[in-house]
Design goal:
Blueprint lengths: L6 E6 L3 H11 L4 E7 L3 E4 L6 H5 L5 H8 L4 E3 L5 E3 L3 E4 L3 H7 L6 E4 L8 H11 L5 E4 L4 H8 L2 H6 L3 E4 L7 H10 L4 E12 L7 H8 L7 H6 L2 H10 L3 E4 L6 H7 L9 E8 L10 E7 L5 E7 L6 H21 L4 E4 L10
Parallel strand pairs: 1-2, 1-7, 7-8, 8-9, 9-15, 10-12
Antiparallel strand pairs: 2-3, 3-6, 4-5, 10-13, 11-12, 13-14
The protein binds nicotinamide-adenine-dinucleotide.
């Protein structure tokens, strides 16, 4: 992979995780934020966007970006001062606008809601059938959604693109940690993931919370999608702001089965606690893999995330690392859809 110029990244979605992606990209030298969109518009610059202006958004991306953007100039080799050219505009189809600009992008980080289950796969399919050759990373969570994405391997390969799917925290880092943990054992009995997330207010991560609600008994993806903000407020009022989720339909299972860590999906269990009223994690996030060694001992390896690390750090950090790996795969001529368990992420500096 060439690293002689920064990787030009588009972020799809400017909500909680989209803004976190802009903030982290702003701290790195190997990547620049070239474009970002929300459901109403797109902001784009061939040079680089002002990531602080994205981070400080409180509502609409286009209006907010224009209000917050710092006046900025760059100097070319001849000493002429150039204004950074930024295009910010509302449109009916921001994804279509991104596809039209694909030739000035290297990578795409998808931070869209995945409601319904096939929404993000349908976005990737549009890029692939539109002929864009890019590296993509998503932070999909549901088993069914990741299966939809794997079914796109042919069009993605034909467009000479690479998609790495399920590259957040769970699935993502924790599933990748389970692949490493499995190496000590001749038989893996179980992988248990128990996550804790604390956020100060749920409106900062609307899609994440709706998608979590969809795992509660009696709820479905469709029902969660149809809930208004006041319905969500009312539900959270009843639970004191907490959601405790068990036996979640999380793609860690298919991603671990795909590389031989487990034979059966039921060997992987994912659950956790979301606190929507306090930034402090309600419980530590752990991945525990139980197995039998070659000499007959049953034991377990546990991987624990630091309590001070936020959901944003643990989702966007890995997503960027996997995006760099996706670019590496593309540069080596390996195209198609792969999971977070199939390759280690690289580190974006
Ligand atoms: P959010 O609701 O805060 O933001 C979503 C953004 O997408 C908004 O800016 C919205 O305007 C935009 N958007 C919606 N529809 C659009 C469209 N058709 N075209 C363009 N933009 C559109 O979302 P969030 O809470 O940041 O979550 C983003 C995703 O991250 C979710 O799918 C969630 O499941 C996933 N996530 C993954 C993990 C993990 O560990 N794998 C953890 C947390 C969240």
């Amino acid at each position: 992979m060439t690293t002689d110029r920064p990787i030009r990244v588009a972020v799809l979605g400017a909500g909680g995780l989209g803004k976190a992606a802009a903030q982290i990209i702003g701290l790195k030298r190997e990547v620049i934020l070239t474009a970002i969109c929300d459901s109403r518009g797109i902001v784009w610059s061939e040079e680089s966007l002002d990531t602080d202006a994205v981070v400080s958004l409180t509502g609409d991306l286009v209006d907010g970006y224009q209000a917050h953007q710092r006046p900025r100039t760059t100097t070319d080799h001849g000493g002429v001062t150039l204004a950074t050219r930024v295009e910010a505009r509302h449109c009916d189809d921001p994804i279509g606008e991104m596809i039209r600009r694909a030739d000035v992008l290297d990578g795409v980080l998808v931070a869209l809601p995945n409601l319904p289950n096939d929404f993000i796969p349908s976005v990737i399919e549009r890029f692939a059938t539109g002929g864009s050759s890019l590296a993509f990373v998503d932070v999909l969570k549901r088993t069914r959604a990741v299966q939809y994405l794997f079914a796109l391997d042919s069009p993605v390969s034909r467009s000479r693109s690479v998609v790495l799917t399920g590259c957040g925290a769970t699935p993502g880092t924790l599933a990748a940690a389970a692949v490493l943990a499995a190496q000590s054992f001749v038989e893996v009995e179980k992988v248990d993931i128990w996550w804790g997330v604390g956020i100060a207010n749920w409106e900062a991560y609307r899609a994440t919370i709706r998608e979590d609600i969809a795992h509660l008994p009696g709820y479905t993806v469709e029902r969660a999608k149809a809930m208004t903000d006041s319905d969500v407020d009312a539900l959270l009022e009843q639970t004191n702001g907490r959601l405790e989720l068990r036996q979640m339909e999380h793609a860690d299972d298919v991603l671990l089965q795909r590389v031989g860590v487990v034979d059966r999906l039921e060997q992987v269990e994912v659950g956790g606690v979301m606190d929507t009223r306090h930034a402090k994690k309600p419980v530590s996030t752990t991945m525990t893999l139980t197995g039998i060694t070659h000499d007959g001992h049953r034991s377990r390896h546990t991987f624990i995330l630091g309590d001070e690390t936020t959901m944003a750090a643990n989702v966007i950090g890995p997503a960027l690392g996997y995006l760099k790996r996706a670019l590496w795969l593309k540069a080596h001529g390996l195209f198609g859809v792969f999971g977070c368990t199939e390759f280690l992420p690289m580190v974006v500096r």
